[in-house]
Structures are given as structure tokens and as C-alpha cells.
Amino acid sequence: MHKPCSIWPLYIRPETGYGVKVVDGRKLPAHRWVYCKHHGLPYPAIAGKVVMHTCDTPACVEPAHLVLGSQADNMRDMINKGATIRCEAVSTTQLH
Ligand SMILES: [Zn+2]
User: Fold this and answer.
1) What distance in angstroms lies between residue 60's CA and the mean position of ligand 1's atoms?
2) 42, 36 in Cβ contact below 8 A?
3) Distance 53 CA to ligand 1 centre (A)
4) Radius of gyration of the chain (CA)
5) pLDDT in tens, 63-94
6) Strand pairing partners for 22?
7) Where are the beta strands (DSSP E) in the chain?
8) 68: closest CA among 35, 20, 34, 33?
9) At 80, phi and psi to the nearest 5?
10) Phi and psi dihedrals of 76, rounded to 5?
11) From the CA of 89, how far away is ligand 1's center (Å)?
12) 27-58: pLDDT as tens digits
């Protein structure tokens, strides 16, 4: 069953749309912090990795929507989405 998004209830950085978690005076992206906490990982364990949202909602911190990937996965994901947007743009143009 698909879980609804849990939007970070505290500060959300307007530039990125990501929630911000303050730990020992350091501002961490909330979804990364939640991912570590949920999986029992120390925060440095995901250094160099990206925590991606399967729901495309940057402020979401629902652990079921967070997946760990490499920067390459993230790029591929964006390219796939870009391709979808381009296809839609083409079909819209054809309607006119
Ligand atoms: Zn979500």
C-alpha cells in the first residue's frame, strides 16, 4: 500500500525545498538524517551517496519514500524525467 508523504514539520529551506535538521549546530538535510535514523546508520555512512525521493517531494521525510542511490542514479533519474517532459511537450505541440 502506498503511504502518503510526511512533510518535514520544522524548517524547510526555500532554495532547495528540503527540510533542515539541526544536529550539534550543523544544518543537515532532514531527509538524509531521517534515512539514517530509520535504518540505524550513523550520518557519515551515507557521505557521497544521495538520498532520493521516490515521491519527488523534497520536503518529504517518509522513510518508505527515501531510497539511497549514487549521484549517477540521481542523474539517470533526472534524465528519465526530462525525457518524459520532452515527450509531453512534443505531443502538446502536435495538437496545435
Ligand atoms: Zn513522499
Assistant:
1) 5
2) yes
3) 7
4) 16
5) 999 999 887 877 787 788 776 655 555 555 55
6) 27
7) 20-23, 26-29, 50-53, 66-69
8) 35
9) -60, -45
10) -60, -40
11) 26
12) 999 999 999 999 999 999 999 999 999 999 99
> What span, in angstroms and rounded, lies between the C-alpha atoms of 69 and 60?
17
**Per CATH, the architecture of 1-96 is what?**
Alpha-Beta Complex (3.90)
H-run or E-run covering 47: none
Distance 62 CA to ligand 1 centre (A): 6
CA of 96 to the centre of ligand 1 (A): 35
Q: Helices (H), strands (E): how many in the chain?
A: 2, 4
**Cα of 95 from ligand 1 centre, angstroms:** 33
Residue at 47: amino acid letter: A
57 CA distance to ligand 1 centroid (A)? 6
